[in-house]
Design goal:
The protein is α/β, with parallel strands linked by helices. The protein contains 22 helices and 22 strands. The chain folds into five domains: 159 residues, Response regulator (Rossmann fold, 3-Layer(aba) Sandwich); 101 residues, PAS domain (Beta-Lactamase, 2-Layer Sandwich), CATH 3.30.450.20; 62 residues; 159 residues, Histidine kinase-like ATPase, C-terminal domain (Heat Shock Protein 90); 119 residues, Response regulator (Rossmann fold, 3-Layer(aba) Sandwich).
Length: 671
């Protein structure tokens, strides 16, 4: 603890008196101590005295110089005894005023033998200060000693409290400025900002000099000032705010939703609000995107199931219709009805194909593609689709890495986008198709849930049409959602595009504003593989050719199985039927030598799929020919199996003639 004392008095005797009172008394000699022990039987305990370090000054100026030197040496005085009258220099009051100007923490005892200054005079001069006491001369030794102990202790506690306060302020300042949550200190009197942290500046887009000293009303930071004012009124009443939804308008005009918490603090005589506003706009956007993705996934599973069952029904309808149309004895009216039924089946089949594409269970034939070359090849068809009132423009990056994709699927996606762009530009406009290489980093991927980091080829489709509002954008890729008039569209165009691109392990992003057109970005992963020359197609079997071979038909849908078996028998084949994999294995054990071809559905009950059945039978008979059929996707088949040159797949629904042609071709192909 600091025991440094300064005595300022023009009388040197006073200095000596104070030294005698406050100086550490000399310890008794060892002999005297021993004698006391003999007389009283035990050592005496001497009183403990503080050791005061005393300096002297005869005039006020000299005292001020010592105070300054002590401050420079970082050894300040805790207490000063100051005489009131010190001619010919400053008197005590002026000396104290000058010292306090330099060092206001100094505790002071005014020593006087006169009544030059009353207590009222001193109060008027220094105010009601708790750092000054008056000591009348001649002074009592005990009184001096008590004052010295009390005031040096008070100085020490004051400095300790000040140090702790500065430490707390420093810690608060660091926490305030480095907090990732936007924070501000705002006056409750005029709403002016005393301070803001870096996160607040980042959220609002302002610089520190642009916001500190200004009010939120001046900066128009509150989109709804009427709603926010009652919140600050609650603070004035001493209430706290916790996670209240509020809005902040950034410098660029963008409104951000925040969770606001606030506490009332007092600085000096003014009350302020310590406000934290957690920006939840991005989190809500990500949650919305995640819910949309989950909803799309759920709708996709539903669509795939509906499409699968519907395709089985269409297979039976189309099969019987096609067979009846082959009857030469049909009258004209009946034949026309059957043809309309067949055309309706084709339209329904196209719709289920779109549902499968949306649900990412479309049949894919992957190959390495040059997107720029593909888009150039598609330009003629695209120009016919959009019409002469729309200008078609291209902006390709050359060279562009290749992608591995189904050429028909990519073409379908681009054409669907072009049709949508055309319908958005009824008065004409421009459609720009572009390509570029996109390097997606982890930061971008974290803010776009459907994306992922890596290298992608990006196709952009930009139109100058009417644009879309936020509600339309939120439902853009939902199946059967359309803004067109009834009968003008199925609502499956963008849903199909979404599913196809997801099936390619890519994604689509949409940007649009009402009246400012739209831009769709299609991201496809790049590949290092080289483009392979296309093999020559094998010669087709003669139309209508049947055969005498034995075929094992495995199909869990009874109507489909009965139709296929009947048709193949009519074509000359011997047919064995099974409703599932277990039945097929039992039949195989009895007739494996006679069976030449397996025609099997992919997805079946009894825990044995068509793929597993084919693998079991192939192991026993390598020359066995296999044709897979399904209302689901080719993706359900093993990738190694699909890569074989002899692999055959017939998607449902199919015409009888196509079935007969594929079977004949398969049987005639040399293993």
């Amino acid at each position: 603890m600091n025991h440094r004392i300064l005595v300022i008095d023009d009388n040197a005797a006073i200095h000596e008196d104070i030294r005698k009172i406050l100086a550490q008394p000399k310890s008794d000699s060892a002999a005297l101590t021993n004698e006391e022990a003999l007389l009283f039987g035990q050592p005496t305990q001497s009183a403990q005295h503080a050791s005061f370090d005393i300096d002297s000054a005869l005039q006020g100026q000299e005292g001020l110089d010592l105070v300054r030197k002590a401050l420079n040496d970082e050894r300040p005085y805790a207490l000063a005894f100051v005489d009131v009258r010190m001619p010919p220099g400053w008197d005590g009051v002026e000396t104290i005023s000058r010292i306090w100007h330099v060092y206001p923490e100094l505790q002071v005892v005014i020593c006087t033998a006169y009544s030059d200054y009353s207590w009222d005079d001193i109060t008027r001069q220094f105010g009601h200060s708790d750092s000054v006491l008056i000591l009348k001369k001649p002074f009592d030794n005990i009184e001096v000693l008590q004052m010295a102990h009390a005031l040096t202790k008070k100085w020490f506690l004051t400095q300790q409290a000040k140090s702790q306060l500065l430490n707390l302020e420093e810690r608060f300042a660091k926490a305030f400025k480095s907090s990732p949550v936007p924070m501000s200190i705002q006056s409750l009197k005029n709403y002016r900002y005393l301070d803001v942290n870096d996160s607040f500046l980042q959220m609002t887009g302002y610089g520190r000099s642009q916001i500190v000293g200004k009010s939120s009303l001046d900066l128009n930071l509150w989109p709804d000032a009427v709603a926010r004012k009652p919140l600050l009124d609650e603070l004035r009443e001493g209430k706290s705010l916790r996670n209240v939804e509020a809005r902040v308008r950034a410098r660029d005009g963008q409104e951000k939703l925040t969770l606001m918490s606030a506490e009332l603090i007092t600085l000096g005589d003014e009350r302020f609000a310590l406000i934290s506003e957690n920006d939840i706009s991005q989190r809500l956007e990500l949650e919305s995107q995640l819910r949309q993705a989950q909803k799309m996934e759920a709708v996709g599973h539903l669509a795939a199931g509906v499409a699968h069952d519907f395709r089985n029904i269409l297979t039976v309808i189309q099969g019987h219709t096609c067979l009846r149309l082959l009857d030469p004895a049909l009258d004209v009216k009946t034949a026309e009805s059957l043809r309309q039924i067949n055309e309706s089946v084709e339209r329904a089949s196209n719709l289920t194909q779109q549902l499968l594409a949306f649900s990412r269970k479309q049949i894919m034939r992957m190959e390495v593609l040059d997107l720029n070359q593909l888009l150039r090849h598609l330009s003629g068809m695209m120009a016919r689709v959009i019409g002469e009132h729309i200008t078609l423009q291209y902006d390709f990056q050359e060279p562009l890495p290749c992608v591995e994709a189904d050429i028909c699927c990519v073409e379908q996606v681009i054409l669907n986008m072009a049709v949508n762009a055309r319908d958005a530009m009824t008065e004409g406009g421009a459609l720009t198709i572009g390509t570029r290489l996109a390097e997606v980093d982890a930061g971008y991927a974290s803010s776009h849930p459907e994306s992922r980091a890596g290298q992608f080829a990006c196709i952009t489709v930009t139109d100058t049409g009417c644009g879309m509002d936020e509600h339309t954008k939120s439902r853009l890729f939902e199946p059967f959602f359309t803004t067109k008039e009834v009968g003008k569209g199925t609502g499956m165009g963008l849903a199909t595009a979404y599913g196809l691109i997801k099936q390619h392990k890519g994604w689509i992003e949409a940007e649009s504003q009402v009246g400012k057109g739209s831009t769709f970005k299609i991201f496809l992963p790049t590949t290092d593989k080289a483009i392979k020359p296309k093999p020559k197609a094998p010669a087709a079997a003669p139309h209508g050719a049947g055969g005498k071979e034995t075929i094992l038909v495995v199909e869990d849908e009874e109507l489909v199985r009965e139709f296929v078996a009947g048709f193949l028998r009519e074509s000359g084949y011997k047919v064995l039927q099974a409703g599932n994999g277990v039945e097929a294995l039992n039949i195989w054990r009895q007739h494996s030598a006679q069976i030449d071809l397996l025609l099997t559905d992919v997805v079946m009950p009894q825990k044995i799929s068509g793929i597993e059945l084919a693998e079991k039978l192939r192991k026993e008979k390598e020359q066995l020919k296999i044709v897979f059929t399904s209302g689901y996707s080719l993706e359900l088949l093993d990738e190694h199996l699909r890569s074989r040159s002899e692999f055959n797949f017939l998607p449902k629904p199919y015409a009888p003639a196509k079935l007969k042609e594929l079977i004949r071709t398969c049987l005639d192909t040399q293993s």
